[in-house]
Amino acid sequence: MIASVRGPVGHVGLDHVVVEVGGVGMLVHTTPATASGCRRGQEASLATSLVVREDSLTLYGFAATSERDMFETVQTVSGVGPRLALAMLSVMGPDELAGALVRGDAKALTAIPGIGAKSAQRLVLELKDKVAALHGTGTSSGGPAATAAAGSGEPWREQVSEALVGLGWSSKQAADAVERVAGSAPADADVAAYLRLALREMRR
Fold first, then answer.
1. How many beta carbons lie within 10 A of that of residue 2, not counting itself?
2. How many CA atoms lie within 13 A of 58 on its CB side?
3. Is 93 left (phi over 0), alpha (psi -120 to 50) or beta?
4. pLDDT tens per residue, range 75-114
5. Which region holds residue 105: left if phi is over 0, alpha if psi is between -120 and 50, else beta?
6. What pairs with residue 51 in β-bridges?
7. Residue 67 lies in a domain
8. Contact 6/43 with Cβ under 8 angstroms?
9. Domain CATH code at residue 110
């Protein structure tokens, strides 16, 4: 079990980072919020969860141990794998997710792609007491906002669309959200800011 990684950041994506550990670049899948808190060339320290499959070893990283614990806790529910667990934290954030589970707010959970009404009710039923005991509602929300510029033109469109599809939405849903965000984002917005706005649009 790899419980944490620490080292200089070699690459930052919208939903992943590469951390140099002992001369090895480790690809760590993260939420957009965690990724946006990392800076290339600066040291990062992430709490991690290693998911072992027959054909792969996948590392997931989080800005706080409480967020990693939430990631692992939601996977105790049948049908919730690491990809959906990461989507839950990406769309709602750890504070809001914990609050929804503790309050029994199944409707809020249906904003996450891949979670319908029945799945949301099952999550609440199985996790309400567990989350209240282990996490409360004060879970850390992750790192600070990103500062990497989106650059000239609109390369952010493709990057944000790919991130949304990766979280479980369809290509059309992603394209529609990107289009709505394009006209409402501040002129100085970076790629991570566009993604946060797109996630907000998806929940409307």
1. 13
2. 13
3. left
4. 999 999 999 999 999 888 888 899 999 999 999 999 888 8
5. beta
6. 58
7. no
8. yes
9. 1.10.150.20
Domain that holds residue 104: 73-134
Domain shared by 83 and 33, yes or no: no
Give a yes or no: residue 109 inside a domain: yes
Average pLDDT over residues 60-78: 93
SS3 152: coil
Alpha helices in the chain (DSSP H): 32-36, 65-74, 82-103, 106-109, 117-134, 156-167, 171-182, 191-202
- Residue 128 covered by a domain: yes
What distance in Å separates the CA atoms of residue 194 and residue 125, rounded to the nearest whole number? 34
Contact indicator for 33, 93 with CB cutoff of 8 Å: yes
What pLDDT does 197 receive?
Answer: 79
% of the chain surpassing 70 pLDDT: 87
The CATH number of whichever domain residue 54 belongs to comes to: 2.40.50.140
- Report the domain count for the chain: 3
Average pLDDT, the chain: 83
User: What is the per-residue pLDDT across 28-46, written as a single tens digit (0 to 9) for each?
Assistant: 999 988 998 899 999 999 9
Q: Are residues 188 and 166 in the same domain?
A: yes
Residue 89 domain-assigned (yes or no) = yes
Is the overall model pTM greater than 0.90, yes or no?
A: no
